[in-house]
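Why predict the complex rather than its parts? Because the way molecules touch one another can change local conformation, and only a joint prediction can capture that. The input here totals 885 residues.
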Amino acid sequence: MDFFYISLQLISAIIVAPLFDGIARKLRAKFQSRIGPSIFQTYYDIYKLLKRGRTKSHSTSYIYQISPYVLFISAAGMFCALPVTYGINSSVLSQFSDIFVLLYLGALFRFIFIVAGIDTSNPYAGVSASREGTVGFYTEEVAVICLIVVMMGAGSTNLPFITNLIQHGLYGYAVPSFSIAATAFLWVMYVETGRKPYDLAEAEQELQEGVLGEFCGKDFALIDIAILLKQFAVLGFFLVIFIPWRFENPILSLLVFLAEVGFLYVMAVFIDNFGPRFTINKGMKRTMLFALAISCTSLVLYIMGI
Amino acid sequence: MKCDIFIEALGQRVKVLEVTRQYEDQVTALVELNDLPEAVRFLYYDMGGYLSTMIPNDEREINKHFALYYVLSMEGGKMFEGDEVAQDEKCFVTVKTLISPDTLTYPSVTPKVPACVWYEREAYDMFGLIAEGLPDKRRLVLSDDWPDNLHPLRKDAMDYRYRPDMKEHYMEPEFDFLRPEGSGVIDVPLGPLHITADEPGHFRLFCDGDTIIDADYRLFYQHRGMEKLAENRMNYDQMGYLAERVCGICGYAHAIACIESAEKAINLEIPARAQAIRIICSEIERLHSHLLNIGLACEVTGNYNAFMHIFRIREYSMKLAELVTGGRKTYGNVVMGGLRRDMTGVEIKESLQILNIIEAQVDEVWDAVMDDKRQMRRWKGVGILDKQVARDFSAVGPNIRGSGIKRDTRYDHPYDFFKQVKFDVAVVEGGDVFARETVRYLELKSSVSIIRQCFEMMPQTAIIVDPKFHVKPENYALAYVEAPRGDNVHWIMQGSAQKVFRWRCRAATYNNWPSLRFQFRGNTIADAALIVCSLDPCYSCTERVTVVDVKSKKSKILTNKDLKNFSRTQKNSPLKDLR
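Output of the joint prediction:
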């Protein structure tokens, strides 16, 4: 039964994610004084891309060919590792639902993205890959510091266990270090979604879409879905730790979870729609230092015991 | 008379063989071949000139020589306060020299005046005139697989229907870029098909990590051969329509410049109302071109929100163009002697309302962009054009005004209605992207005010005089228009039978390209697209030839009838038997 629900969790995410993307696009269009596409546009895009064939440059190797699948699998793995439809009672799945599993799957996603970029030998994809790596340097340590605070505070790295603890009020926002860590963690997870102003790796004008520019047709559709899933997974990562609303009924908790993630996803339009993209050596560095400072504050508070 | 002081000074420096006057502010001085570099350098640096254009010409059937015309706009160096020629002394001095067809060589001016570099490279491509001492002798205009000894603009060069054989894609020779020495330099090609620039131009960036240390570029992938097309084939009314197709945005400026150079050559004065409407149209072009560029400068940094709002305003300028010319683009309106379409009182009233809307909304959006600190950080200090570099390379338009040099044809050489209109030249110090965009914003404001003044002062006269003229062969004249990107300079030498002997069209961007390299240096790849954009480049303006794609070895000449028939019915493709 658990496996039925976990596959339901994944499939429903794949099905509704384009809808939220469509809503975000519509909302963005309203801010830009446009009518904008239909809210189902992302479905149409993916459907159209799935019908198209592939072309690849002759300088690529098998890494380029398998990368869309690996990207999709690692993003799907990340999403499945979120304890939404299963809880602490599910003895099989809950042992896989772990902070480290999520972190490493995220790292795998990034690694494949970088390797695929370098493999194409397109200079822009190469620059894009190196930027993706640099973004990783900036985000990962902030995320890890926040998670250390949570892990130590809760005494476990197991996500269902932490969720359970927080939902029953045994640990949570009453602890200052936890609430401060929440701020930095949300920030970093937003950066991880790769939306403006942090979309350095996929920068359309500067890098001609970077790594993504080398993919087309089915591969590109698959990567599109993988990126949407990853965005949902990283936002969900924040939600399951810091705002866990889990119910006994798996369907109900799945619906509530998707609504929460979708809400965050659409509301991010208020950040990504306004202003230009950051540059890697100026804007990115400066803003991520803020996030780092916040996370360090929370670590210091934890060490002080509050 | 104007220009006399410059000719006098030049006469003391080098031997002037002959002085001819084309128009009240245009004088040509013939000098000896060996005096050419010194004459141009003296006028450029010592007397305060800027290179407007250079025209190589095949005059073998007139005087058995090739000729070079270096046109200098005498307006002062403008490097500091007061470094400027008095307003009523500003004029154009042309230095002319004759080259013997036996030697085909002339001493290069580029080592003394860097601004000549592109012109002298083009002179070799088009006429086979060799500049001795030119530091950069690579091809500029012709494609890399063009046959070696074929110089298309020579009068006897080739049959109009002749097309050189195309090479297979992989057989095409590599263009050799000026690559800086040193290890760890990475080549990053921006183009030839840059996804977002939508126009072909190959910028090779040489990077150390993320920093650009040098850049080189290859353009002219779409040379359309308009100058050749015009020669001896088109009459003057057709010329205007050809000229406006040079550019998609400043087409009207090209049409005016081209027609006015013909009008000047026969000393034709057009009615004041036509003058005013010509100014209005070229200012409308400035409105929509500057709105486009400010929008794009936001878009390339990823600020789509500002871009979309600016484009909403741009829509009003298209509406304005519709009221003035009848079409959303300002095309097909200029003819010899005036204009084809007049405006009614109702249209003028409506236009004034639209101007109010544009003015209010431009301010709103600009304030919002200014308030966005992140946007300002992307613009400030990026792509700096040094004042001295701008001076050396004769940059034009917002590009040079953003470097603090007060250079504007409307102010230096007022033409048409600009003698009566009052406006401020927008000059901003700094030379970075921010300065150039600020210049554009200030010009938006001044354009609105110029259009208003024109509407107010426009007299009720006819809009066209019957151009009963008889052109004298070998007469030539220069006309200039401040287009949105800088001054467009057209030069026409008249031939017999009311046709053009030689048409030289110099689009604004042509003068801005050579200095772009200096703007790239020291910036990051992330800013490269922004720097190119802030120049407001126009690829197709600079390039004037059509590429004819011949895939199979077979060829077929289509008659006008075939082609028209096919376009109407879309059946019986005349190219069917070629495939």
